[in-house]
From TrEMBL, chain B:
SUPFAM superfamilies: ALDH-like. This is Unannotated protein. The lineage of its organism: unclassified sequences, metagenomes, ecological metagenomes. PANTHER family: ALDEHYDE DEHYDROGENASE-RELATED (PTHR11699). It comes from freshwater metagenome. It holds the Pfam family Aldedh.
Length: 313, 280
């Protein structure tokens, strides 16, 4: 393994200073151009099933209850109860205190292969002491989470304290160890520029993230195609330097099959086909799954389905 | 120097917006004299799907509005159409031919139809509802309610009157609608959509597509989100095909021959029965 930074703030800053900038106009145009690709018939069916396998089925509301989590766990295992051929989703994503309930219900429904992801480190704002963030993560791990979605301290990032951001991610990564995958949420909607997104992506990857994730879903804009493109370029560049493939999770604002397929086109064209699997690309969503299921029914039956034929979440 | 013509782009009406067809297609329509008139958008099945989505999301708001409020909005549509009377007359003359007198009469009748159905909005449940006698300590009421999203293939001959005779009763009761305009004479429908956009009607309650009935109608009939279908505008051969396509989700499919009739409202309503214990 190639070591790009030695862990000191000085070496981190030195590395980041050498990062190439992002051509904003170019990124916007490329994302828009790739968005016009037309994916039809058998390719579309493949893409729909792949997208279902990539969904992190998410419920992150203040009103979440045990019943709600039970319902999404059943749905995660068998998204369409009438059709056995629909694959399970990639993971279930819940708040920290509901991890135990999610794990239990997934296992009860025959979904022991589906990981539970927990959002930690004072999600979504990340405004808490390091002590609290660490305890937050430990709780989730104890309850059985095997994926941790942490948020970075955007305030520190924007005021230039990049070493602090790096150290926090590194500390959480140490707690996760081998027990859990670490996804680092950049909250791109608050990072203002694409250059910042690229810089934050590299900080996260250098600090040990297994995934970099666009957003919490609580801030707009979220996973816009150009932002995902910039992050995919970052993981590609990181792979070229180190030989390590880091995953990307697009979350927030992906509601339709069309949006999801656009993301898959980006993955294939920017990072490469190796990233087209749930180990390296995820889509954080709740409403998206119903649209994917309706499109799948349309492909099977030949007529448009309706919202009466999927679950209300 | 002569002035350059400002030519109009005729577009679809979906979810309160005026998009072109996603397919980028358009088709040519000619007037009664065979001369070129316009290139309206040729809607695709994806436009239709978008329209159904818009209609479905507009449904809770529109059916949840009070019947009185819906009546006010229908009346407002009549007011706005009145201001565009000359445009409607000119379009009917160009597309259907005939006399100015006949065209004017059609527009007048169409506007009056809105007023007529506006009046019905808060009366239909009184007329068609009932208090049912039952053997038990309950009040028992039957109340007609909206059906859901209704597909409309309006009458093709009288392009404005046929259209309004179909859509006014459907939306007066709280349904939302996806409408396929007259294929050869779509201009009054497009002008109507411009009137609707400025008449307090919530976005998505009426969605108007222009294009080929033979292309769009089967998708409308088989769409599981559509609960009822008005097939007044198609011939009996196509009607039977649509009835077969619509059987999957037991769509209510009707054909009408009268413009003014509360039956047109009731055809796309559903009876809800409520049991209420006496003394509670």
């Amino acid at each position: 393994m190639v070591t790009l930074v030695d862990g000191s703030e000085a070496s981190l800053l030195q590395y980041l200073a050498k990062l190439s900038g992002v051509d904003k106009v170019g990124a916007d145009q490329r994302a828009a151009m790739l968005g016009t690709r037309s994916i039809k018939t058998s390719s579309k069916s493949w893409a729909i099933d792949m997208a279902i396998r990539m969904v992190d089925l998410t419920t992150l509301e203040g009103a979440d209850s045990e019943g709600k989590v039970r319902a999404i766990c059943a749905k995660a295992v068998r998204p369409d109860p009438n059709d056995f051929t629909v694959p399970s989703v990639g993971a279930v994503c819940v708040y920290n205190d509901l991890v135990k309930i999610a794990r239990k219900n997934l296992d009860l429904n025959g979904g022991s292969h589906i990981p539970v992801a927990a959002v930690t480190t004072a999600f979504p704002s990340g405004r808490a002491s390091m002590k609290v963030k660490i305890q937050d993560t430990r709780d989730a791990l104890t309850d059985g989470a095997t994926e941790i979605d942490m948020v970075i301290d955007r305030g520190a990032f924007l005021s230039g304290k990049l070493g602090l951001v790096f150290d926090e991610i590194k500390a959480i990564k140490e707690i996760c160890g081998e027990r859990a995958h670490l996804k680092v949420i950049l909250e791109t909607g608050e990072l203002v520029t694409y250059d910042n997104v690229r810089k934050a992506s590299f900080i996260a990857m250098l600090a040990g993230a297994d995934f970099i994730k666009t957003s919490t879903g609580k801030v707009t804009p979220a996973a816009t195609p150009p932002v995902v493109l910039v992050m995919l370029e970052a993981v590609r560049d990181y792979y070229l330097q180190t030989g390590i493939r880091i995953g990307v999770k697009a979350a927030g604002g992906i509601r339709t099959t069309k949006d999801a397929i656009k993301q898959l086109v980006l993955v294939n064209e920017v990072a490469g086909p190796e990233w087209l699997n749930p180990q390296l690309f995820r889509i954080g969503a709740s409403a998206l799954l119903n649209d994917l299921l309706m499109q799948r029914m349309k492909a099977d039956t030949g007529y448009y389905s309706g919202s009466n034929y999927v679950t209300l979440d | 120097m002569s002035r350059i013509d400002v030519k109009k782009t005729y577009k679809l009406f979906i979810g309160g917006q005026f998009p072109r067809s996603e397919s980028g297609r358009s088709y040519e329509i000619t007037g009664a004299d065979g001369k070129f008139i316009a290139n309206p958008a040729l809607a695709s099945r994806k436009d239709l799907r978008d329209a159904v989505t818009a209609a479905k999301s507009a449904l809770p708001g529109w059916s949840g509005a009070t019947a009185f409020n819906r009546g006010q909005i229908l009346y407002r549509i009549a007011e706005i159409m009145e201001g565009r009377r000359d445009q409607f007359v000119a379009e009917i003359l160009a597309l259907e031919g005939g006399t100015t007198k006949a065209a004017t009469a059609q527009v007048t009748e169409a506007i009056d139809l809105w007023v007529w159905y506006a009046g019905w909005c808060d009366k239909i449940s009184t007329i068609a509802g009932a208090t049912n006698p039952i053997a038990g300590p309950y009040y028992n009421f039957t109340i007609p309610e909206e059906l859901g999203v209704v597909g409309v293939i309006a009458e093709q001959k009288e392009s404005l009157l046929g259209l309004i005779a179909a859509i006014a009763p459907v939306i007066s009761t709280g349904n939302t609608a996806v409408v396929i305009a007259s294929e050869k004479r779509p201009l009054p429908a497009i002008t109507l959509s411009e009137a609707l956009a400025t008449s307090d009607l919530p976005a998505g309650v009426l969605n108007i597509l222009t294009g080929k009935v033979s292309e769009l109608a089967p998708w409308l009939a088989s769409h599981m989100e559509i609960d009822g279908l008005d097939v007044t505008g198609v011939n009996s051969k196509i009607e039977s095909e649509l009835r077969i396509a619509g059987a999957e989700n037991l769509k209510r499919i009707h054909r009408f021959n009268k413009a003014q009739s509360p039956e047109r409202m009731l055809a796309f309503m559903e009876a809800k029965t409520v049991w209420h214990p006496i003394g509670v």
